[in-house]
Write a structure and sequence with these properties.
This protein is an alpha/beta fold and about 325 residues long. It has 2 domains: about 30-125 and about 270-310, 3-Layer(aba) Sandwich (Rossmann fold); about 135-270 and about 315-335, Rossmann fold, CATH 3.40.50. Helix content is about 40%, strand content about 20%. It is built from 12 helices and 13 strands. Strands 2-1-3-4-5-12-11 form a 7-stranded mixed beta sheet, with helices on both faces. Strand 11 (about 295-300) and strand 12 (about 305-310) form a beta hairpin. Helix 3 (about 70-85) packs parallel to helix 4, helix 5 (about 135-150) packs parallel to helix 6 and helix 7 packs across helix 8 (about 225-235). The structure holds beta-D-galactopyranose. Beta-D-galactopyranose binds near residues 159 and 249. It is found in: Cell envelope. InterPro entries: Bact_Solute-Bind_Prot2 (IPR050555), Peripla_BP_I (IPR028082), SBP_2_dom (IPR025997). Keywords: Signal. Its main location: other. GO terms for molecular function: carbohydrate binding.
């Protein structure tokens, strides 16, 4: 068996897989991963898809990718189909954290383990959760904003409430804001989820926040760069873009460009290379019933899910080179064009 592994897997990590007897029959090239994605709406998801497929090919395993475009019924149907056609492990980015619980049970009935990728499936016996520390994303956003604006009116544009990441991020933000709110220094004058993370929804919410507060807004914390960009559009209509600090997430190209231009102050960089490579490595171990050492657990309403959470990196105009450019996440010429 050892010869087989070294032969087809150039990647270091895979070498330490010791196969339990029942997995003897499966060789790597026989493994098929089902990767069920919610959307390709944001830039990052294209990277997730392409880098995941690249890492799977490099590891010598097969992968099938489906995209549900925010449609729960479609995502359930797509995963049902992959399960019935015989995948060895399911990797899922749920559109709706609750709706995909049924699929986890279905997969287990077929002897297939489930890895929750980036977003956690709620109320189901998920085998492993791999993501960035989403609560930490919120904590780091709020810390940076309270340093810039220790007193004033805040707007919170949360992510989609169907996405458990949005809840974890919000938890982190309000953990940091609480003492400021209790002291009366900070008032959160507007706090709304953004349905399906749709930027137009965030822009409309920001316009309402500006109207009902007579433009007396001192800081904005948004769930990601796409919604931060939408908030900045709304601020620009009142000539406030660049004077009201805004925090986002994802380090997508437009977000980093706005940081250079000065209309956005912060984003959170999450290397998709690291996440996707780790996911393929772990998916293979799940398919081979290999033991996995988790960092911690997160309760998803049903169980304490074994979890591996990577650290997000705050990016502002002082460290763009050392982070997103150094990693090749974006090209310098594209950022400073
Ligand atoms: C979240 C993810 C973010 C974000 C968002 C919108 O779950 O962690 O990176 O972009 O989805 O798709």
């Amino acid at each position: 068996m050892t010869i087989l592994l070294i032969a087809c897997t150039p990647d270091e990590q895979i070498k330490d897989v010791t196969l339990p007897p029942e997995a003897e029959s499966k060789s790597l090239e026989e493994i098929k991963i089902g990767f069920s994605m919610d959307t390709l709406q944001e830039d990052r998801w294209f990277k997730d898809r392409d880098l995941f497929v690249e890492a799977a090919e490099k590891a010598g395993v097969e992968v099938e990718v489906t995209v549900a475009n925010g449609d729960d019924v479609k995502q359930v149907w797509q995963t049902e189909k992959m399960i019935s056609e015989g995948i060895d492990v399911l990797v899922v980015v749920p559109h709706n954290a609750e709706s995909m619980a049924a699929i986890v049970e279905r997969a287990h009935d077929a002897g297939i383990k489930v890895l929750s990728y980036d977003r956690l499936v709620r109320n189901a016996e998920v085998d492993l959760y791999l993501s960035y520390d989403n609560e930490e994303v919120g904590i780091l956003q709020a810390r940076a904003m309270t340093e810039l604006v220790p007193k004033g009116n805040y707007v919170y544009l949360g992510g989609a409430d169907t996405d458990y990441n949005a809840h974890l991020m919000k938890q982190g933000v309000f953990k940091v804001l609480k003492p400021y709110i209790d002291k009366g220094d900070v008032t959160v004058v507007f706090n709304q989820w953004t349905k399906d993370w749709v930027p137009e929804v965030a822009q409309a919410n920001m316009e309402t926040a500006l109207e009902v507060n007579h433009q007396q807004i001192d800081a904005v914390i948004a769930g990601n760069d796409a919604t931060a960009g939408a908030a900045i559009e709304a601020l620009a209509a009142y000539d406030l873009a660049g004077s009201v600090p805004v925090a986002g997430q994802d380090a997508d190209l437009a977000g980093v460009q706005r940081i250079v231009q000065g209309t956005q102050n912060l984003t959170m960089y999450k290397s998709i290379d690291d996440l996707s490579e780790r996911a393929v490595e772990l998916a293979i171990k799940l398919a081979l019933n290999e033991e996995i050492q988790e960092d911690r657990t997160i309760n998803n309403g049903k169980i304490n899910v074994p979890s591996i959470l990577l650290p997000p990196v705050p990016v502002d105009r002082t460290n763009i080179k050392e982070t997103v450019i150094a990693d090749g996440f974006h090209q310098e010429k594209d950022i400073y064009q």
